[in-house]
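Please review the protein record below. Let me know how this chain folds according to its tokens.
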Amino acid sequence: MIAKDRAILTVCYAAGLRISEAVCLKPTDIDSKRMVIRVDQGKGQKDRYVMLSPKLLIHLREWWRMARPTDWLFPGDIQGRHISKDAVEQICRKTHRLCHIPKPITPHCLRHAFAVHLLEQGVDVRTIQLLLGHRSLATTARYLRVATSKVCSATSPLDLLPHPVPVKPQPAPPQVF
């Protein structure tokens, strides 16, 4: 896998970006001081910030040192244009074949995995909603098919209560015949 392919697929997963958002990133959108990525005019023409993981920053710096992109973080084949969504989908298909993973993989699957993995770590749904750039919490909820392991590992609120002091049984009143 070439560095550009690895970098753009890693961005899709590590930041939970839509494919349309990942292809439009500019080098200036990466803020390593604050450890955020600026998503300029995402879906619904909304700007937002998403997390920049330290591992993703390493991948992006490797990519930047190799390619020195100026206008677009991921330039396309046509001078002055960013990589196309179709090209990223082809990269995904090629990577899928190389890895021999039985389930289909798309850039959107990477975004979905980002959300589910955050939920499995205990991140609240509202935070996930903001990171994904969803207007409605209902949209985020549709994304999050909770893994069985998450459901089974949840602690009942009853188990979190302090242990009650055992109740001493009252002596039975004498029975009269």
